[in-house]
Amino acid sequence: MSSSSPRRSSRQASGENIVIEAAWLYYNDGLNQNDIADRLKVSRATVVNYLQEAREAGFVRISLASDAFTGHETAIRLRDMFGLEGAHVLPEGRTLEENALRVTTGAARWLPALLAPGDRLGVAWGKTIHDVAECIEPMVIADMTVLQLIGSMATPYGFSADVCSSYVARKLSARCVNLHVPAILSDKNIASMLRSEALIARQFEDVNNFNKTLFAVGSATPDSHVVSSGVATAAELKFYAARGAIGVVCGRFIDKAGAPIEGPLDGRVMGVSLERMRNPKTGILVSVGPDRVAATA
């Protein structure tokens, strides 16, 4: 008689055992990857995979001591200049890609320390937020809710808004509330009618009820994702840039003071307002790259 028990097979358990052993040798005993490969009689590449599996399975959790980064001279200057509760600044890498990886990894490691049981975390959209979500170590934060702050678009990048919020929720074992509407509609009257639909209205009421946000500021340059994703056309970007746009937050163009700029997207974007974005208990901004400096400031 066969059994339908969910108990792991001996083969699965054996695979977990060697992953755990590799993690112990590396993180506890301090062996390097070559030494571990010799000990376990596998290749170094296999050891790298074992260590990655250990992190993804939650066997290992890596934390970065916050004080070392919030106490950096630049972090202190940023905090004082903009009246922030805190800022984390990482050492500069050799390339923009390396810097981006460092920032998104650091943000993912620090994010749980900024959250508390019962929080309702509004999550924005974009490659930066998607990469942060992928780097979060799996954990449980009790009674946590993650909310999608802007509707979705069918982009070629794999980081639509619903994917970003779902990733964050899955990593934090949280309830996820997605906004099942497009990020942008062709006509503001159609957008208004859709917002008034009972089902959609309830979703907007739910996603507007957040006390913390995780967001990034996009650029307002011709290669901006806001254009390549279809939220704005090149002509619309040019319109906003001519009126002082230096960045984008949740599909809305902002000037150097962070104020929204009136334009052709007004009423057509399906997401929380910039005014609502300004009023959570905590706003967690993740920023990297010289093209984001002006918008971030």
Features:
14 helices, alpha/beta, single chain
The number of distinct β-strands equals 7
Q: Helical proportion?
A: 40-55%
- Shape type: globular
Largest sheet: 5 strands, parallel
Radius of gyration: 22 Å
Q: What structural class do helix, strand and pairing data support?
A: alpha/beta
Strand order of the largest sheet: 3-2-1-4-7
Mean pLDDT: 87
Summed up, the helix count is 14
Head-to-tail CA distance between termini:
67 Å
User: Proportion of β residues?
Assistant: 5-15%
Low-pLDDT parts are 1-12
One letter per element, helices H and strands E, the order comes to HHHHHHEHEHEHHEHHEEHEH
Quick recap:
43% of the residues lie in helices and 8% in strands.
